[in-house]
Structure formats: structure tokens, C-alpha cells
Here is the input.
Amino acid sequence: MDTPFKLALVVIFGGAVIIGIIAGRSEAAPTAAAAPTPTATALPVPLPNHVNIIPGNSNDQPAFDDPSVLTVHPGDMVTWTNLTSGSQTATADSGVFNSDVLAPGQSYTWTATKTGRFPYGSYLSPNVRGEIDVVP
Here is the structure.
């Protein structure tokens, strides 16, 4: 190769590199996509004589019963459904009912046989408390 040809290749190659650098710097900087606006998750409305065990809003309240107080009559059936991502229970303080462990999605049904107030909780989550009031 002769010198003028080599010089022409260096100039062409050097020009291509300079054009590439200029083109690369002229592109707009990438921007992050805007975060989607969070939307509240609708909580299911409990059916009559039904208690939903639903996720809480913090570590202090990992779950809660909705409704926390339910009034029924003797002979009525009460159903608890665990809608949390962890195991829960529904255990009367008096021992009149005990769901044992409810895995996520599981339900437990108890039939009220006598009048009275029946406070209960989850022995897996001590802050989860509720009450069944059985009235004539």
C-alpha cells in the first residue's frame, strides 16, 4: 500500500470515529418511565354471617377480622375465611369454637347454639381479635 492510500484510510476511519462520537452525544438521555399510580385494592364485602380475615396495614396489625363484631342468632352459621397470605385461626376465648389453622383461602364454619358474647382471636396473630354476639 502506498502512503497516500494509507493516509486516506486513516482520515476516513478517523472521520467515522468523530462522527460516531458526535452522534452518540447528540442522542437524548434515556429517562425512566413514570411509576404507575398505586390504586387501592378493594376489600371483599363480607356475606351475611361471614367474617373475612384480611391483611392488615402494618407489621403491628398483620391481619384483622371484618367485621370485628358480628351479631347472629342461635342456629345461625358463622363462616370465617382467611384472605391473608399467612395462616390464621378463629378461636373463642371460652373454647366454644376453634377453627384450627386456616391456610390462605381456607374457611371454617361454626353454628351458634346458645346466646352470649363470644370474644375470639387468632392464636397465630394475637392482635387479631373479634367478637360474635349471639342474641335471641
Strands lie at 50-55, 63-66, 69-72, 77-82, 91-92, 107-111, 116-122, 125-134. The mean pLDDT is 84. Helices lie at 3-26.
